């Protein structure tokens, strides 16, 4: 069991304690936190409180988190869009609303559940039993290309390329407003948002270097920009944070865009369309492309009218 003693600062003030703790522990869901309340494992100023308790600045919060229950990840017969496969790698075109690997509150329906069904034990083991074959990931509502490794040698080879920033990763997005310049580079470090641990932010004090190169492909009715972004680095939510930081947030982004979701989109309009790297066995550069998903093309048509 893990124990934490927290003194609430101004960012906690007037928040429900269950929400505040969910934001503080970004790897635990709100339902998980609420379950801890039922076991009287959360004390505020030495007293048991309800999940609805409003936190005050200076409150002392003691929380004991039970050891996690061992969860066996089950193979699931989920259809996959396999773009390419050989003895070392699999290239998958991930659909919208699919989590890449299991995590609290997402133990089924993930890409890993599907990979375990279709490829059984023929996946790399470097990232452990919860992430077999997984070298990198994209957000649940981001669509597009991922490379999966079948063996540890291939995994290490491609991981090295990720570390060296030599892999080609091009994304396509729709942003608000006309971007005046035809292309540009955003070089701004990204780290945890000090006021909300569930979000990332431009963070010059504690962030890691993040570089995004963008190019305008089309300006649509003076209201939107269809862009291509090429990653030089790969930080969490990098493109979403960077585009929001220059006041061109991505359509549908429920975290970094404060504008009204007028098209009832479920998540950001972001697609990993190009992925290229040196093959771990042939040592030749290979590149893959995935067409924009249907919803993305339909939205572009709607915006142009």
Name its key features:
305 residues; alpha+beta; nine-stranded mixed β-sheet; four-stranded antiparallel β-sheet; 15 strands; 18% helix
Number of helices: 6
The rounded Rg comes to 21 Å
Estimate percent helicity.
10-25%
What global shape is seen? globular
Measured between the Cα atoms of the first and last residue, the distance is 57 Å
Tell me the total number of β-strands. 15
Order of helices and strands: EHHEEEEEHEHEEEEEEHEEH
* Fraction in beta strands: 25-35%
In terms of per-residue confidence, which ranges show pLDDT below 50 for 5 or more consecutive residues? none
Averaging pLDDT over every residue, what do you get?
92
The SS-based structural class is: alpha+beta
Largest sheet: 9 strands, mixed
Account of the protein in words:
With 305 residues, this protein is an alpha+beta fold. 18% of the residues lie in helices and 30% in strands. The strands form 3 sheets. Strands 5, 6, 7, 8, 9, 12, 13, 14 and 15 form a 9-stranded mixed beta sheet that branches. Strands 1-4-2-3 form a 4-stranded antiparallel beta sheet, with no helix packed on it. A two-stranded antiparallel sheet has the order 10-11.
């Amino acid at each position: 069991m893990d124990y934490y003693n927290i003194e609430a600062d101004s960012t906690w003030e007037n928040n429900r304690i269950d929400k505040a703790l969910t934001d503080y522990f970004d790897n635990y869901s709100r339902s998980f936190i609420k379950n801890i309340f039922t076991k009287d494992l959360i004390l505020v100023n030495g007293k048991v409180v309800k999940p609805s308790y409003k936190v005050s600045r200076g409150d002392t919060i003691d929380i004991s988190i039970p050891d996690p229950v061992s969860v066996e990840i089950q193979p699931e017969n989920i259809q996959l869009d396999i773009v390419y496969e050989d003895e070392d790698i699999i290239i998958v075109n991930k659909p919208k609303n699919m989590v890449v690997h299991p995590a609290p509150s997402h133990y089924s329906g993930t890409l890993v559940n599907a990979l375990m069904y279709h490829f059984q034990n023929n996946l790399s083991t470097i990232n452990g039993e919860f992430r077999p074959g997984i070298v990198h990931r994209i957000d649940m509502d981001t669509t597009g290309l991922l490379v999966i490794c079948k063996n540890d040698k291939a995994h290490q080879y491609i991981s090295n390329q990720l570390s060296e920033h030599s892999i080609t990763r091009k994304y396509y997005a729709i942003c608000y407003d006309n971007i005046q310049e035809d292309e540009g580079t955003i070089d701004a470090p990204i780290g945890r948002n000090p006021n909300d641990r569930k979000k990332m932010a431009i963070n010059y004090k504690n962030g890691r270097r993040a570089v995004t190169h963008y190019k305008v492909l089309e300006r649509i009715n003076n209201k939107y920009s269809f862009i291509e972004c090429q990653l030089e680095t790969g930080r969490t939510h990098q493109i979403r944070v960077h585009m929001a930081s220059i006041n061109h947030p991505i359509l549908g982004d429920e975290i970094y865009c404060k504008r009204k979701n007028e098209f009832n989109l479920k998540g950001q309009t972001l697609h990993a369309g190009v992925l290229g790297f040196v093959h771990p066995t042939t040592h030749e550069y290979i590149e893959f492309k995935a067409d924009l998903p249907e919803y993305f093309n339909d939205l572009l048509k709607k915006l142009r009218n």
